[in-house]
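Narrative of accomplishments. A recurring question from our advisory board has been how the design workflow behaves on a single, concrete structure rather than in aggregate. To address it, we present the structure tokens for one chain from the evaluation set, followed by the sequence designed for it. No filtering or post-editing was applied between the two.
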């Protein structure tokens, strides 16, 4: 069931990604970057699940974010054409968005996710990555006024189905129903 959940979720992500007027021709190098970054993130969750159980995942997340941000900062100075763009963050609104994204979305989000990975396991938590697509589309619609297409809704159905199958929720409900049915059957005898 977990394999079927993964396939359904991944199919939903593909459908959602290809939605819109561009379709397959709308795929860009940015889509490949996103794909590789999500693959790297999933691998990170597996590594976190394998680390020594005595390590606190919250502390580990802090180390990862500090080291990772220093690494990204150095690379951005080499790759970015205009490092002076950092001045734009001195705008109150931009600084608020930046701090919210850094502290709540990135730091808190990854800390909780890595904590869950340690307790639930990397396979189950990795399935929830599919929800990134859903929340990104929802956010783009609400904050950027982008259109939601029928393919987005279809993709969401695949993603939710995949998460329910992949996390074992459907299997748990089926087993619970079987146990209840067996209990009722024994009571009626």
């Amino acid at each position: 069931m977990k394999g079927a959940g993964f396939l359904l979720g991944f199919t939903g992500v593909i459908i959602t990604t290809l939605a819109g007027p561009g379709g397959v021709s709308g795929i860009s190098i940015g889509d490949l970057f996103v794909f590789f970054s999500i693959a790297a993130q999933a691998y990170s969750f597996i590594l976190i699940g394998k680390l020594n159980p005595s390590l606190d995942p919250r502390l580990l997340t802090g180390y990862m974010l500090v080291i990772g941000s220093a690494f990204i900062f150095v690379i951005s100075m080499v790759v970015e054409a205009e490092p002076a763009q950092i001045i734009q963050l001195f705008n109150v609104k931009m600084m608020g968005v930046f701090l919210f994204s850094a502290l709540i979305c990135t730091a808190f989000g990854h800390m909780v996710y890595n904590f869950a990975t340690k307790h639930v396991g990397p396979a189950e938590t990795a399935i929830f990555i599919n929800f990134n697509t859903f929340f990104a589309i929802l956010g783009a619609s609400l904050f950027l006024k982008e259109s939601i297409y029928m393919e987005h809704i279809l993709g969401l159905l695949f993603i939710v189905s995949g998460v329910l199958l992949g996390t074992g929720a459907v299997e748990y409900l089926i087993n619970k129903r079987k146990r209840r049915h067996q209990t009722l059957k024994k009571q009626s005898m």
